[in-house]
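Can you give me the bound-state structure? Components:
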Amino acid sequence: MTTHSKGVINACFTLRHEAFLLDVALSLPAKGVTILYGQSGSGKTTLLRCLAGLAHAQIGSLSVDGHRWQGEGEFVPTHERPIGYVFQEASLLEHLTVAGNLRYAQSRAGSESSSSRSLSNQELIELLGIETLMQRKPHQLSGGEKQRVAIARALFSQPKLLLMDEPLASLDAQRKREILPYLEKLRAELEIPIIYVTHSIDELSRLADWVVVLDQGRAVANGSLADVLTALDSPMQRDDAGVVLESTIVSREEQWALMTVGFDGGELLLADNSQPVGTKLRVRIDARDVSLTLSRHQDTSILNALPATVVDVSAGHSQGTVLVKLRLGPKSTAAPDGEKQMNAQSGFHWDSAELLLSRITRRSAEHLGLAAGSEVWAQIKSVAVL
Amino acid sequence: MDENLAAIWLTLRLAATVTLLLLLVGTPIAWWLAQTRVWFKGAIAAIVALPLVLPPTVLGFYLLLTMGPNGPIGAVTQALGIGTLPFTFWGLVVASCFYSLPFVVQPLQNAFEAIGERPFEVAATLRAGPWDRFFTVALPLARPGFITAAILGFAHTVGEFGVVLMIGGNIPGVTRVVSVQLYDHVEALDYAQAHWLSGGLLFFSFVVLFSLYTFNRRSSTSFGPRV
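Here's the bound-state model for the whole set.
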């Protein structure tokens, strides 16, 4: 755990605060979006503050992409860490204008790291839609505007790691809808790793590449989005069982107002969202919206039925149901090598995008004789475009 | 009337000097009190606040002894070749600094405490080191506290009497401030002159406090200390 490997964030923290104990040892990829997920009081924010150096774990070690930030008798103070931090509530410096806040970050940004971002400051201002706010004082901004400025400010300091603590939690539903698209754009444009704290399954589904699930100060799951979502013993399965698929719009059938999206394990027909062919989108399929048949039904209203192989069956968290983990595609071609991504240096396992979960009754599972290896058709009742 | 003007001029010079010095000395004390968690913080805060409750004559008596020829401060000033401080303008300045200290330190401390941790954490994540944070976050955000502290320090120094009598005596143009001059007029039964000075001080004090409360109401949307 004390390696200084490139491409990896190694973090071990033990921090006691009154009755609360944070005790984690994590290895995270130093790329993409890592979501720290958990209920309030699970230690997500404390862990993020430890990464930023805002909290000082009594016992801890931290190395980020080969740089040591904390170790035996060693603690790099926050202002010497190349991080950007977006706080949960508005945190603009009240005595400065929006432009002043951005300048505050820009003038202190390390010059050697200017290549860590593909976006120029001007492009960033446009992407976040804050160009008309520059001369305003923070108290003249709405909550959503403040958070967009705070995000821009964090990036103006040319960070090599962006830490975000529930940046949407203090906003109402409408403001959340206003900011999430900006976050998705940033996710696509930024080349630096983002560690993002949330307790919202929606934000997790839309943004995550990697997920750490925290519960009472401990990490109870740590893996790629697909791995964590489809791990049958994961605490995520209690209410939120489902998978997220990364797909691309392939074609549209205008007469039916439908479009076809393709992903690693097959294709889906969805309601047309009028975005151009080639657009990448994430879709979420909840386990309770997937039913199973042994043969292909032609006489059904359900549009999407995909061949799949049962990987595992486990008792559901509610009595009388089971959760079935499926690999899409017929048995023989179950594991195409095409998109397998193994990070050679760190060995992070990113694959398994072609998995699906189905929640059915135990009676049905027995009736169909489902077991690992069974070939079935997965009928998908509804798909949420994220 | 010339004597009155001399007294007024001396008072203003004294109050301005004291206010300037107290802002320089009081800021680090207030900052330290706002930040520290050491066990003797309470003791230091109490010492700073003592002039609020002590009769000025008590403070003046001890300062007279310590600054006098046989006191520790007197020994130092004599060794430096300055002579002794009592009955000089600078003796009054030193005494007034002690006397008005809480009126400057407490508003500043309140203002620093009202800022909270968050703006400093924000600045730290934007690469601002401790000194940088003090000058670019603490000082500007505590601005209402500085205005309150300066006004209170100035006005309180103008209004002192007991300490001046003990330390400064009554030397025209050197230590005879407005309040002492007023006392002289009353002793001499010159009520017309006394009325001029008293009325002037009353008016001055009202204007100062009125502007202070008006300012604090306007800036209470940010965080001004309650006076």
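A couple of observations. Helices of chain A lie at 44-52, 98-108, 121-127, 143-156, 173-189, 201-207, 225-230, 362-368. Residues 332-345 of chain A have pLDDT under 50 and may be disordered.
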